[in-house]
Amino acid sequence: ASQYAGWAVKPEGYFAMGSGPLRAIARVEEPLYARLGYGEPASGRGVLVLKTRASPGPAVAAWLAAKSGVSTDRLTLLAAPTATPAAGVQISARVVETAMHKLLELGFDVTKVRTGFGTAPIAPVAQSDLRATGRTNDCILYGGFVHLTVEAEDDDLAALVPKVPSSASRDYGTPFYDVFKRYDGDFYKIDP
User: Counting runs of H as helices and runs of E as strands, what totals does the chain give?
Assistant: First the structure.
């Protein structure tokens, strides 16, 4: 749950999407963490990856410290625009997390997942962050492979399995760049 890039880091005058252990320490989506029964232990240190073109300054660090309870001198913040090799690697590495998110959205108890591994190609760097969002997500949706081992009843799995692949989405086959624009850049409106 901590690797999901769903934390809108937006102190005044700044915006980034954050992922990493600090997200779980802060429990910014309390209902999600309560549903999963998950949280990162408060170790006094925090790491967050920020998807942005703007370097996080002291005001951003202070905002994150206030949200997480981790002091600014114990924060490690990494920032990279989407249209960079670093972000491309990080996004493709989320292929298993993307599958877990879809299972959760379909109502499956993800605590029944015992193991998972996956692969996805790394997108070539695009000329803009918006185009990179399209390319990186296309790599996961159309080039990604995930294998999950679950402990569940066969009948439950028989109903679930046809709904899981990206090919089950109403938007399947459309480049993610076009899908993202269709939904006004709102990931939460997109059919998982």
Answer: 8, 6
Q: H helices within 58-152, ranges in order?
A: 58-68, 85-92, 95-105, 129-143
- Token pair for 63: 């905002």
- Tokens read off for 65: 């410290």
| Domain 85-189 CATH (choose: 3.40.250.10, 3.10.180.10, 3.30.1030.10, 2.120.10.10) | 3.30.1030.10
Segment 110-124, tens digit of pLDDT: 999 999 999 999 999
pTM of the prediction? Answer: 0.84
Write the CA distances from 176 to 100, 126, 165, 168, 179, integer angstroms: 19, 14, 15, 15, 5
H or E element in which residue 32 lies: helix 30-36
